[in-house]
Here is the input.
Amino acid sequence: MIPVNEPSLGAREQEYVLECVRTGWVSSAGKFINEFEERWAAYCGRRYGIAVSNGTVALQLAVACTGLEPGDEVIMPTFTIISCALAVIYSGGVPVLVDCDPRTWCMDVAQVKEKLTPRTRAIMPVHIYGHPVEMDPLLDLADKYGLAIIEDAAEAHGAEYLSSRGVSESVFRRCGSFGALSCFSFYSNKLITTGEGGMVLTDDPILAEKAYGLRNLCFQPPRRFYHEALGFNFRITNLQAALGLAQVERIDEIVARKRWMGQEYTRRLKDIRGLQLPVEEPWARSVYWMYGVVLSEECGMDANQFAQQLRERGAETRPFFLGMHEQPVFQKRGLFLDERYPVAERLARQGLYLPSGLALTEGQLEQVCKAVHEVLA
Ligand SMILES: Cc1ncc(COP(=O)(O)O)c(C=O)c1O
Here is the structure.
């Protein structure tokens, strides 16, 4: 079976992790944490990096830093992982949903304006499957209405967006550079992995200070075990950061490999009727985190049936997200009742992603494409 994901870990990763074991710096102190934070923040063009134990808590930390009042609203796509909505709910806020763009599968930015209310405090764009959200209109809205942007770049390490805000000539800027607070995941299927891990980036020294404090139980120096605020234990270990640093050192090679993989899949699958492939908008440089495909209903199959047929031919896949408005846990809490988002609903039923891990060989990619051709012949 060709796995949907397999990380690529090398000699440098081994060397750095072994150094932690040899020296005993295995917990949440040690040189790799700072180095990893600095390197990743610099790569994304940010001043501060606050590394945490996973991407879900990175979002939770970012939302906590914005200081929501109970009932404050945060606009986000319905088509995303539950972590986005959880982060807002845990902070006492209310997630407000928009549908997605049928081409990029990212949030439909034109719908955001319609969802603004006097309670709106933030917008949470999520760069889906490695393709950036159209950021300029969101940044304009945020400026106009005094909202925070909490950027979820968990799936978009190294992806770029062509921004023309505040400059005479448009420039490509990396995902993770747009939010007042921007979040990453370093789970093992991400471009950069620390096993489990995440990071919050910001340029604001006050937000950074707040995030460092909240990450570590709000210990308040100089007295030990003294607290003036409620914090979390969201710390990352030196072991994880060691892995992360070795990975960041390879980021250019990793991004190039992912882009090659995306382009190669497209080249081999583009002539199949009834199969929608990922796009790369002219204003975007996608990293094809996971190579998603959407089956037309005319094929007479949904994504489940397609997945089963691919499995029988040796290719593992994953279904697309199920929208937040279709989640029983939120329905039970009275959220999103009777809300409909047709694009996300269709993607959830007709979409899946193909094996896209960094260890995928050209031969395996060819086998996957052969299986797709066979099933849809
Ligand atoms: C868009 C997005 N945000 C947040 C997360 C949460 O990250 P983690 O799995 O590290 O908690 C993920 C996880 O894959 C994700 O895809």
